[in-house]
Design a protein that fits this description.
single chain; alpha+beta; 9-stranded antiparallel β-sheet; 53% helix
């Protein structure tokens, strides 16, 4: 320790240079860091989606979902397997343990599924990882009052999309609602029969004509030259002119028929345009464009570059209107600005407190320099670890402001106090060295204790652990930096600024304490003389505060306050695209006319990641004004009104908070089939609907289709030379569209799709009357070879870990989540369940139970680690035991503060409580360390406690009030909210206030009481 202090005192200029280098490097690192909303979380889920046209959900379960589940269930690290089987598709979700190598997991899933034989007509499964980076960072809608959808599509795809794709950091750009051109090819069945042709014969000739065939190199005229055969079918006219040889049906008609016929005579060929999906903004047709960033890109930079390109496009196309329907960049920038403003306010408050206590500008400057320097060192370190500047790391830097100044305050105050004492024997470097050394052990142990508190966060698994690990690391780095600054820069600056001492006006006699110290000494002496009364009062206060827990209530995580609703519409089985469009238009108009709504963006059809088999579903973004008051109540009221409309399908508000939290109570009901599950689901739905603070209740219980099973009569099929497969192929309307050729028109290439000439039957009778060509030369009606069985089939079958299940859930609208869920749980527990039916609690209730348990264990582990460090520091068990008595009283202040602030016990407040363990123990260490030193100098325990209490009162109050002041902006909750916000700030302020006051009283009482046993033991050993 002497070497370090001597080095910095002798090499002041070198220390100044290193400080400047650190400041410049830290600022550079901070400006270069990627800005994100939340840490880059690895979501341990792999999905596999398989399209199976024409298959019922039951078929999908039996032929795809169930075999897939068995194939992946035993892969290493698999935690749970879920599947959803829809009409035409299977969706598999495989959840792995946190910490699994997801790249390897994805490869293993793909390999396992590849071994499963696919049923006829099913496509290869698409395997992908769920990644935060896979979601769009921005979305826009482009509309125009003058251009047609076709013209707008061409403009967007030609000018805007390539520009956006060229932005550095953009991974992909997806476009929906656009106008698509293609060539439709429909056979004329009458003409085919007239010319003795079949579809297969014509397709074979067309495909053979539309080729470019390289023959290779030939030695012409002494050198090798390439020869290529080109079919030269490039336009629609070329396609129509292809000559098809006519097949005479009999010798008599051979002479009357032409030998060749143009393709245009036996098929209708035309260029058609259509919109595969519907996209509207504020009731007007639009094109939706979504931008996904690449893995290492900075979200804010990419969004800002995108905005520049969009502005340029809008300027060049005055008729077009572009609205941002989704923007991740702006909230990140706002959160950075908010956290910086809170940090500056907190730092300013801390500086003011130091100045008021020390009443010396030079000593205040020395103390406060540790704030920016410690934070910049922390920024440098987290940049090296490739951690982004996000809500958690920014929150950690803000919270750390109050704590990083503590070490410097303690050292500066001790130097200042000793310089101000007229009885001090040492001067200059010697005084500074000894004053710094005197405080090294307490600040080292207090810093290690605070760091140790955050170590168990690494043991917390799941989403909470992933979210808070960057927070913990940032604080640890800042605290280590503050310790380094306190023992290097602070002594150096003290020597530079106090070369001539403090002057006579700052000198004071340590034997004559100030008024506050005098009052404290009297109170402390009285409590030491009345230990029983003091202890009883403290215990009563502690127990009484525990009674506040039900009043305070508990919740999971604070919800984000984004002024946006994300609503989905799931059509009832049988609803057409036109039916859905009519329904959505009505709700669209409802929101457009609603107060404070800025824009409404609708997408109907296209890919919906929530229901891969559903192509008629609708998604709606409703963006509100940022100043909308009581937005949560507005969301609730709006959804109530939406659900009062009389629609066949289901409207639902989706909750995708950036914190990964959702106050949703949920239950899984397992059974052997959906029939046994349904009554239980209905009972739970009724319970949830009766709840006072629960709305948006719904279940995944599927709607049912009426199912007609055509059972083939094998004897009759054999009689006509037919098979079951031939019947199925002849009737199946869900065949994939076949690409016949590719042609060019006006410089643009189009694919030629063969459109079926079969019309979907409008009744079962019409389907049964259809005929199938028999190899025996006759047309056989379907009804002659099948019998019809009537039944029902679900539109979705969901399975979890091999069991059929359905879920039911509702949104909790009160802050006290535990109270609302407990009321529901009591009623659910009383349900009389059928045999083989079980209920599992999920949603926010399960998340809270798991996370609170893990954080509770983390706190116990933290206390154990703290005690171990204290035992090592003080070389005994008594002093550390007395110090730990300061911890229970943090609970009292924290609960009272939460009640006053209207906050609940949440993950955020639990992290605050974890922080308190380190902060509170720090003050007790500073006090007891002085007591022990004075005892070693020969003072009695009582005199040592009184002297240490008066001496250490000022640094203890300074550090506590500075920390409280730095956290006031968070506790007020001004300028937005988040995980690191009001709840955490209120908890730390309340707990620190009560524990500081009681630390100054209870810890000395306990130490003196335990001192008797310690002395008795020493006497016995002698």
């Amino acid at each position: 320790m002497n070497h370090i202090i001597n080095f910095v005192l002798k090499n002041k200029f070198a220390v100044w240079l290193m400080t400047i280098v650190i400041i410049v490097a830290g600022l550079t690192a901070g400006l270069q860091m990627k800005l994100e909303t939340i840490p880059d979380i690895t979501v341990p889920v792999v999905t596999a989606t398989t399209i199976y046209p024409g298959a019922t959900p039951d078929q999908v379960v039996n032929e795809l979902s169930e075999p897939y589940e068995k194939a992946v269930r035993n892969l290493e690290g698999v935690k749970m397997v879920m599947s959803s089987s829809y009409q035409n598709a299977s969706s598999l979700q495989i959840e792995f343990e946190f910490g699994t190598d997801m790249k390897e997991a994805e490869a293993e899933v793909a390999a396992a599924l590849k071994n499963i034989p696919l049923p006829t007509g099913a496509q290869e499964p698409k395997v992908a990882r769920i990644s935060i980076n896979a979601f769009p960072i921005a979305a826009i809608s482009v509309s125009s009052e003058q251009d047609t959808l076709a013209e707008l599509t061409e403009n967007v795809e030609t000018n805007l999309v390539p520009t956006l794709e060229g932005i550095e950091g953009v991974s992909s750009v997806a476009v929906t609602g656009q106008h698509l051109n293609e060539v439709s090819f429909r056979f004329n069945q009458d003409k085919l029969v007239q010319y003795g042709l079949t579809e297969e014969m014509v397709k074979g000739i067309v495909k053979g004509s539309d080729v470019t065939f390289p023959l290779g190199l030939f030695p012409f005229e002494g050198k090798e030259q390439s020869v290529v055969v080109d079919g030269d079918i490039t336009t629609i006219d070329d396609l129509k002119k292809i000559q098809i040889p006519v097949v005479p049906t009999s010798p008599d008609t051979a002479s009357s028929k032409p030998s060749m016929v143009a393709l245009g005579e036996v098929a209708e060929i035309e260029l058609v345009g259509k919109a595969e999906s519907i996209s509207r903004t504020n009731g007007q047709d639009s094109i939706a464009v979504q931008v996904v960033k690449s893995q290492g890109a900075n979200t804010v930079d990419v969004v800002n570059l995108m905005k520049e390109e969009v502005k340029a496009f809008e300027k060049e196309n005055a008729d077009s209107e572009i609205i941002f329907t989704f923007d991740q960049g702006e909230p990140i920038e706002k959160s950075v600005e908010t956290m910086l403003s809170k940090a500056l306010f907190g730092a300013g408050f801390a500086v003011l407190i130091i100045l008021l206590f020390l009443r010396n500008i030079r000593s205040t400057l020395i103390a406060i320099i540790s704030i920016p320097l410690s934070l910049l060192i922390a920024v440098l370190l987290i940049k090296q670890m490739d951690i982004t500047l996000n809500m958690m790391t920014l929150g950690a830097l803000t919270v750390a402001i109050g704590r990083v100044i503590d070490d410097s305050i303690v050292v500066v105050e001790n130097i200042y106090r000793r310089m101000a004492s007229p009885t001090e024997q040492l001067k200059g470097k010697a005084l500074i060295r000894e004053a710094t050394k005197e405080m090294f052990v307490p600040i080292l142990s207090s810093t290690l204790v605070t760091i140790a508190v955050f170590l168990p966060i690494g043991l917390v698994g799941g989403m909470v652990g992933e979210l808070f690990l960057p927070f913990a690391l940032t604080i640890v780095f800042a605290l280590l930096a503050s310790l380094l600054v306190a023992i290097t820069l602070v002594p150096m600056l003290s020597h530079s600024l106090f070369k001539k001492g403090l002057g006579d006006k700052h000198t004071h006699d340590p034997e004559k304490p100030g008024k506050i110290a005098g009052v404290y000494r009297s109170i402390l002496n009285w409590t030491l003389n009345h230990k029983l009364i003091t202890t009883v009062l403290a215990v009563v206060l502690f127990v009484g505060s525990l009674a506040l827990v039900p009043l305070v209530g508990t919740s999971f995580m604070p919800e984000e306050d984004e002024k946006m609703m994300y609503i989905t519409y799931t059509p009832k089985p049988g609803e057409t695209r036109e039916d859905v469009d009519e329904t959505v238009t009505e709700i669209e108009d409802f929101f457009i006319d609603r107060k404070d709504v800025e824009s409404v963006q609708v997408s109907i059809g296209g890919e919906n990641p929530m229901m891969p088999g559903q192509n008629n579903g609708a998604l709606m973004y409703v963006i509100y004004d940022n100043d909308t008051p009581e937005f949560s109540l507005e969301k609730e009221e709006a959804m109530k009104e939406v659900q009062n409309f009389n629609f066949a399908g289901e409207w639902k508000s989706q909750d995708f908070a950036t914190s990964g939290s959702s106050n949703e109570i949920s239950y899984y009901v397992y059974g052997k089939d959906l029939k046994t599950i349904e009554p239980v689901i209905r009972d739970i739905e009724e319970i949830l609907n009766e709840g006072k603070n629960i709305n948006n209740v719904g279940s995944t219980l599927a709607e049912s289709y009426e199912e007609h099973t055509l059972v083939a009569d094998q004897a009759k099929l054999a009689q006509f030379g037919l098979t079951t497969a031939q019947v199925g192929m002849a009737l199946n309307p869900n065949v994939q569209r076949e690409v016949l050729a590719t042609i060019e028109q006006d410089g643009e290439k189009f694919e030629v799709f063969i459109d079926s000439t079969k019309e979907k039957p409008e009744s079962l009778e019409e389907l049964l009357n259809r005929t199938i060509p028999s190899p025996l030369g006759m047309q056989v009606p379907v009804k002659d070879v099948v019998t019809v069985n009537e039944g029902k089939t679900s539109d979705t079958v969901t399975r979890r870990d091999g069991q059929i299940y359905a879920s039911v859930k509702g949104k909790i609208t009160t802050d006290d989540v535990s109270k609302a869920s407990k009321e529901v749980q009591e009623k659910v527990d009383q349900l009389d369940l059928p045999a083989n039916v079980s209920i599992e609690t999920a949603g926010v209730t399960a998340d809270m139970q798991e996370s609170f348990t893990q954080l509770g264990l983390a706190m116990l582990a933290a206390i154990a680690i703290v005690y171990l460090i204290l035992v090592i520091t003080f070389g005994g068990a008594v002093a550390p035991f007395a110090i730990l008595f300061s911890l229970p009283f943090t609970i009292s202040g924290a609960l009272i503060a939460l009640l006053i602030a209207g906050e609940t016990i949440s993950i955020s407040t639990m992290i605050g409580a974890l922080m308190l363990i380190g902060i509170v123990v720090t003050n007790a260490i500073v006090l007891i360390d002085r007591v022990i030193h004075k005892e070693k100098e020969g003072l009695s325990t009582r005199d040592a406690i009184l002297e240490a209490g008066v001496t250490r009162l000022r640094p203890i109050l300074m550090t506590a009030i500075a920390t409280i002041g730095a956290l006031i902006p968070l506790a007020i909750g001004a300028e937005g909210s988040g995980l690191i916000s009001k709840g955490l700030g209120v908890t730390v302020i309340g707990g620190l206030t009560s524990s500081t006051l009681l630390t100054l009283i209870i810890v000395p009482v306990v130490y003196e009481f335990l001192g008797k046993f310690r002395k008795r033991k020493l006497v016995e050993e002698e």
